[in-house]
Amino acid sequence: MMPYELKLRRDVEKQLERIPKKQRERLVDTMRSLRQDPRPIGCVKLEDRLYRIRQSQFRVIYAIFDEEVVVFICKVVRRTESTYRDLQKMLDRAIRDVIKE
Question: Number of structural domains, the chain?
Answer without folding.
Answer: 1
